[in-house]
Amino acid sequence: MEARILTLFLTRDASTFVYKNYEKVKFQEGVEQEIYVVSAEPIPIENNIVVPVPRNYPLPIRIGVTINEALRRFNLSKYTHIFKVDGDVNLPHDYLANLLAKKAPLAGRGAAMLISVKFLQKVLKGKYPISYCDDGYVSAVSVACGYWPPEYDGEDLLWFCRIYQPSREYSYGREYYKWGLPLSVFILLLPQLFVTRRRDLKSLIYNLVGYLSALLNKEKRYPWWRSYAYYRVKHLVSKLDKLITGR
Known about the structure:
Elements lengths: L4 E6 L8 H8 L6 E7 L8 E3 L8 H13 L9 E6 L2 E2 L4 H6 L5 E4 L2 E5 H7 L10 H11 L14 E2 L5 H14 L3 H13 L5 H16 L8 H21 L2
Parallel strand pairs: 1-2, 1-4, 2-3
Antiparallel strand pairs: 4-7, 5-8, 6-7
Helix pairs in contact: 5-9, 6-8, 7-8
């Protein structure tokens, strides 16, 4: 079966809908896709799926509820992949083709993530996670299965807007602990996140506070946390080895 993508372009309402970003998704080169705009309120555009979710829900929870409700409207056996993309993302023209070529069960960044239908059905049990770090959870599950999600490595740049909110960053930190991320690895990653991911220093501090809170309170971890920790350390060691040896 040739690759056939179900694309869900996520935005809240007409005020947050960026047509330029939508066009960048719609006119991706070299792929076959069906694109739907998923919003909480109606938008005057073709293929608009409206999922009214209360605004008092935390954003990651709203996203999870919205995606699951949207997916229920489709026969997923018609597709090979689901592309979940946030409305504030400005995609390179070859983003999807680049990720498809990697033939991975999961690929891309959280705001623009390509998920194979097989991965969704077999690993995620047919449902997008309802989590305070939804896309991070998906990536963490993939890592725990031994699949490190590859990212876009084309010539253009992937640009998206990251909104800093203390409560959300704190929740992310708690999730990092529950995934099984070792504290030592987390601390080693902080400079990288600050430089390469352009993460705000305040957000990293709240991430760390959330992590330490979960650690001290001994919050229950996900069943796959040991596997995630193993592959996370293995990946870091591999990167350090390449950095030192130059291979």
